[in-house]
């Protein structure tokens, strides 16, 4: 057999394998699910969405804060929060979930299930058995016929220790996987009933309470890097839902002149300080569209590290716009942090859109649908041209571009 | 320290200017590279530096400073640099016990109603007052960034008072320099911040205004720098000298060029 | 007319309103120099710049006439140094108390700047003080002919500015002059003047001016009236790119059929295809490792095509 001739190292089916070398990070990163950044040496963790990691310069740096401006109905921002937490479950990180609305346990129950490589392998086997029958049954390919009897996709079996995983939003995470990790909860209604209201440092008591809870966990569970810990180091993933909403007791939503304009910014500042000196990363969703005073948003942005805005098409006129028919919303990357460096990893593309498919949520570069004007079913070209104008004025910051030339 | 910027400003670490208030202002982009420039510039010049760092951690500033050829830890040990790490100090104010003895925490205002920054001023004052033993050149106060103070609940007039007193002490009495960063944007609704920025523009001797390109993001041109040199008001009124350059930030350096003269465009 | 104003034609409150783009400090010093040359005593209440900086560039005999109340050094009484002028002292009585130290005869009071005071005292209190100063001073035997105040227009809401303008006898708003005016060396500016003449007359005027060494004023004439620059209307003609082509853009039916009849270079007979598709034994295998941009969803990526 040919397999024997090529040597013992080759797999028994007679195939030589060219596998990409495992990334060098596996040596350096002692903690599962992390890798050091090439740019600034800070440890990165995945946001749970590889396409988002890609946009944010490889992932979320440990010790930083990702702020997500919620979409109008909070659907996709909650999804991102769950992806972030699910990635923590898969990597065995510790979780801290805070909410004023949903019980954290309920949030965790709804985490999407990871799409492990076994699934792919399973598909692969199926394909191989059917491939012969396909060859006969399928109508022969006309143009790309050389690919006719190649299997659809082959995944290397040893890719499970990857950075960032894919998740199936149609299924929820299995209980056994979930029981293996350690998590902490902060459910505001519970906390308030435990202790009386005290307002310290001119900050709303719910925020003070939340800060104290996070600080307690960081210090007691050994996430602060200040003194050496005996046990294995781990990452704490903090997820905070709808911070700044009325349920947190904050009045910045809804009124133009809130009484407590500084509570949220103070909270963020202290939280930033906490994160910077610990092995943790935080994701916060904020209902930015409800905050009337735009000055608060500007300040909140300045105090966060990464800021991403979601704009869903649900209920907006863009839902029916032919230009956006492939997408469910736009994603705006407002800020990328500069860490330990003068520069930051900005991706070249600014026009990004997301879509939620049956199983998967992806972020893609926004592009126009193909213009197949010969067919009747297409919306008229005129229509499309109109919306293209719309796009260019919105996405490229070209509003001033007509008269102004930078070079 | 970026050599090209020194040339544009006609400055060199051998002869730092004295008694100047430089305002760094950024609009729709990040101007922190200028803070790193002035930090390394004044440390190389042998000035005594008090750095009020509210936005980032010491680690961050130190790593970037090392790329620019300066070690902050060494400067701290020599007593040349006094570093106030806001992200750490705010902690002691919020969670630490109130200590009775010793100087009050500079961020004490977070406990109070934010009506004045006297403790912070006193911190700057004691840090920069020359003591008999050291032989540093003129003292320098560096702030990154003033807008954070507003987010922490300080009233804008209190921020202006803080800078006023720093100008009295550092610029006027000790013949030193102040460099402070603020964020601003024309269409901003943050009126408090606009008040601070406009007022500081009146008081400053030099404004370095970093703006993102109006036409959007570009890979090879990261923004433009407006250098506004205020008239000296010595003999007669002079027109404010305005120069505009575009820049590109690299790993360890920033290159400046005339508008439209980026190597990538030509 | 700005010249007359500097020469002392108008008494009462004179406001100089500037902005960050065009400073009014030098005009303020021009007023100071002019008053001092007329032999009046000049009281400067300075909060914004140190005394040395204010006196820089003024003639020695002008500075001799100048009485500087130092509000710069410790206006809030933080450092507890003796001397200086605290912002709390800015009231009719407090200001008049400082005047007694000056010489008698007509005097000018200079506020550098009113904006600084307004940030630290409520507007009604400041306005009342401005009204009181001449009266309280007259009671003490001093004649205050005018109060010249610098105001940074971009620091205050427009309502407040209107309020102050209504109190003033004269308002000078300075802004940068258009490029074409004056020679480049002498930094021309444009002044919009609003003057109350007597009880019944109000004058409005635009003037260009510049300030020479030693703080003397030079007027550069008035802007031409009604010469507003036209919006340059660009004629936009849409040319048809397909008008003058040297080749054919569209096919006739016969031409289309002929084109479809041509066999394509990658078309092979079924026999040849199957022989090419025979897989040699031990052929290499390609493993695929998905990366960030990949999409393992099994939905047909082409389901949006109408094929």
TrEMBL record, chain A:
It holds the Pfam family PAXNEB. Signal peptide: none annotated. Its main location: cytoplasm. Pathway: tRNA modification; 5-methoxycarbonylmethyl-2-thiouridine-tRNA biosynthesis. GO terms for biological process: tRNA wobble uridine modification. One of its GO terms (cellular component) is cytoplasm. The keyword Lipid metabolism does not apply. InterPro entries: Elongator_complex_protein_4, P-loop_NTPase. It comes from the Eukaryota. It is found in: Cytoplasm; Nucleus. Keywords: Cytoplasm, Nucleus, tRNA processing. The keyword RNA-binding does not apply. Belongs to the ELP4 family. Component of the elongator complex which is required for multiple tRNA modifications, including mcm5U (5-methoxycarbonylmethyl uridine), mcm5s2U (5-methoxycarbonylmethyl-2-thiouridine), and ncm5U (5-carbamoylmethyl uridine). The elongator complex catalyzes the formation of carboxymethyluridine in the wobble base at position 34 in tRNAs. This is Elongator complex protein 4. It comes from Pelusios castaneus.
UniProtKB/TrEMBL annotation, chain B:
GO terms for cellular component: cytoplasm; elongator holoenzyme complex; nucleus. GO terms for biological process: tRNA wobble uridine modification. It comes from the Eukaryota. Keywords: Cytoplasm, Nucleus, tRNA processing. CDD domains: Elp6 (cd19495). Pfam families: ELP6. Pathway: tRNA modification; 5-methoxycarbonylmethyl-2-thiouridine-tRNA biosynthesis. Its main location: cytoplasm. It is found in: Cytoplasm; Nucleus. Belongs to the ELP6 family. This is Elongator complex protein 6. It comes from Pelusios castaneus.
Automatic annotation (TrEMBL), chain C:
It is found in: Cytoplasm; Nucleus. Transmembrane segments: none annotated. GO terms for molecular function: tRNA binding. GO terms for biological process: tRNA wobble uridine modification. InterPro entries: Elp5. The keyword tRNA processing applies. Its main location: cytoplasm. Keywords: Cytoplasm, Nucleus, tRNA processing. It holds the Pfam family Elong_Iki1. One of its GO terms (cellular component) is elongator holoenzyme complex. Pathway: tRNA modification; 5-methoxycarbonylmethyl-2-thiouridine-tRNA biosynthesis. The keyword Transcription regulation does not apply. Residues 291-307 have a biased composition (Acidic residues). Residues 287-307 are annotated as: Disordered. Belongs to the ELP5 family. PANTHER family: ELONGATOR COMPLEX PROTEIN 5 (PTHR15641:SF1). This is Elongator complex protein 5.
């Amino acid at each position: 057999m040919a397999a024997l001739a090529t040597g013992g190292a080759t797999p028994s089916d007679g195939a030589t394998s060219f596998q990409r070398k495992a990334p060098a990070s596996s040596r350096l990163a002692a903690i599962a699910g992390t890798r050091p950044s090439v740019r600034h040496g800070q440890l990165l963790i995945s946001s749970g969405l590889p396409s988002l990691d890609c946009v944010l310069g490889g992932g979320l740096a440990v010790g930083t804060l990702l702020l997500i401006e919620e979409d109008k109905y909070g659907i996709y921002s909650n999804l991102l929060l769950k992806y972030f937490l699910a990635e923590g479950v898969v990597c065995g990180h510790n979780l801290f979930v805070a909410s004023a609305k949903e019980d954290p346990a309920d949030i965790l129950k709804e985490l999407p299930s990871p799409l492990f490589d076994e699934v792919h392998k399973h598909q692969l086997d199926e394909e191989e058995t059917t491939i012969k029958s396909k060859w006969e049954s399928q109508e022969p390919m006309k143009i790309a016929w050389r690919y006719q009897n190649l299997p659809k996709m082959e995944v290397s079996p040893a890719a499970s220790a990857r950075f960032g995983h894919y998740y199936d939003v149609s299924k929820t995470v299995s209980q056994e996987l979930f029981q293996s990790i350690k998590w902490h909860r902060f459910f505001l209604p519970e906390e308030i009933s435990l202790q009386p209201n005290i307002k310290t440092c001119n900050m709303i008591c719910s925020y003070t309470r939340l800060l104290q809870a996070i600080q307690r966990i960081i210090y007691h569970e050994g996430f602060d890097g200040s003194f050496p810990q005996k046990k294995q180091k781990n990452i704490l993933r903090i997820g905070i839902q709808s911070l700044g909403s009325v349920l947190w007791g904050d009045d910045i939503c809804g009124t133009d002149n809130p009484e407590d304009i500084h509570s949220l910014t103070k909270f963020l500042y202290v939280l930033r300080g906490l994160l910077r000196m610990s092995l943790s990363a935080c994701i916060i969703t904020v209902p930015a569209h409800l905050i009337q005073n735009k000055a608060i948003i500007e300040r909140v942005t300045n105090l966060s590290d990464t800021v991403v805005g979601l704009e869903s098409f649900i209920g907006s006129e863009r839902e029916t716009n032919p230009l956006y028919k492939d997408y469910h919303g736009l994603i705006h990357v407002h800020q990328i942090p500069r860490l330990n460096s003068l520069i930051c990893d900005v991706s070249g593309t600014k026009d990004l859109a997301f879509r939620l498919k049956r199983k998967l949520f992806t972020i893609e570069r926004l592009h126009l649908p193909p213009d197949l004007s010969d067919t009747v079913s297409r919306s008229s070209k005129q229509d499309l041209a109109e919306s293209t104008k719309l796009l260019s004025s919105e996405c490229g910051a070209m509003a001033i571009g007509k008269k102004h030339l930078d070079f | 320290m970026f050599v090209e910027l020194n040339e544009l400003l006609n400055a060199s670490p051998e002869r730092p200017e004295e008694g100047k208030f430089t305002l760094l202002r950024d609009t729709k982009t990040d101007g922190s590279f200028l803070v790193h420039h002035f930090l390394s510039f004044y440390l190389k010049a042998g000035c005594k530096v008090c750095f009020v760092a509210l936005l980032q951690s010491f680690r961050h500033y130190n790593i970037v400073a090392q790329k620019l050829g300066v070690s902050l830890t060494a400067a701290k040990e020599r007593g040349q640099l006094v570093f106030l790490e806001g992200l750490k100090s705010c902690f002691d104010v919020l969670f630490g016990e109130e200590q009775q003895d010793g100087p009050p925490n500079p961020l004490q205002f977070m406990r109070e109603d934010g009506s004045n920054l006297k403790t912070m001023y006193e911190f700057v004052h004691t840090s920069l007052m020359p003591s008999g033993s050291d032989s540093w050149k003129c003292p320098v106060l560096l702030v990154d960034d003033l807008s954070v103070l507003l987010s922490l609940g300080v009233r804008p007039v209190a921020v202006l008072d803080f800078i006023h007193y720093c100008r009295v002490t550092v610029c006027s009495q000790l013949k030193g320099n102040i460099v402070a960063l603020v964020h601003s944007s024309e269409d901003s609704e943050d009126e408090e911040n606009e008040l601070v920025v406009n007022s500081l523009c009146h008081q400053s001797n030099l404004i370095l205004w970093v703006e993102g390109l109006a036409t959007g993001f570009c890979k090879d041109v990261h923004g433009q720098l407006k250098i506004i040199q205020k008239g000296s008001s010595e003999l007669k009124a002079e027109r404010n000298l305005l120069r505009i350059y575009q820049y590109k930030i690299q790993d360890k350096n920033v290159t400046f060029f005339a508008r439209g003269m980026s190597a990538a465009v030509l | 007319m700005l010249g007359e104003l500097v020469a002392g034609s108008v008494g009462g409150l004179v406001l100089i309103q500037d902005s960050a783009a065009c400073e009014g400090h030098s005009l303020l010093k021009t007023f100071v120099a002019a008053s001092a040359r007329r032999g009046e005593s000049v009281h400067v209440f300075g909060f914004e710049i140190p005394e040395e900086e204010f006196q820089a560039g003024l003639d020695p005999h002008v500075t001799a006439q100048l009485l500087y109340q130092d509000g710069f050094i410790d206006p809030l009484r933080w450092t507890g140094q003796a001397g200086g002028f605290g912002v709390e002292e800015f009231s009719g009585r407090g200001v008049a108390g400082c005047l007694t130290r000056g010489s008698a005869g007509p005097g000018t009071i200079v506020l550098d700047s009113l904006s600084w005071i307004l940030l630290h005292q409520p507007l009604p209190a400041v306005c009342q003080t401005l009204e009181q100063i001449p009266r309280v001073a007259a009671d003490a035997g001093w004649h205050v002919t005018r109060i010249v105040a610098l105001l940074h227009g971009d620091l205050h809401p427009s309502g407040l500015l209107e309020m102050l303008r209504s109190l003033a006898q004269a308002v000078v708003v300075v802004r940068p002059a258009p490029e074409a005016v004056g020679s480049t060396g002498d930094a021309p500016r444009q002044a919009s003047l609003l003057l109350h003449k007597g009880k019944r007359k109000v004058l409005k005027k635009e003037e260009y001016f510049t300030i020479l060494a030693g703080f003397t004023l030079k007027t550069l004439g008035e802007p031409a009236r009604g010469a507003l620059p036209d919006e340059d209307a660009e004629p936009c003609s849409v040319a048809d790119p397909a008008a003058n082509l040297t080749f054919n853009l569209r096919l006739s039916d016969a031409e289309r059929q002929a084109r479809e009849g041509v066999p394509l270079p990658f078309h092979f007979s079924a026999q040849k295809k199957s022989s090419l598709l025979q897989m040699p034994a031990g052929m290499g295998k390609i493993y695929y490792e998905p990366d960030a941009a990949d999409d393992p969803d099994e939905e047909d990526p082409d389901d949006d095509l109408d094929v």
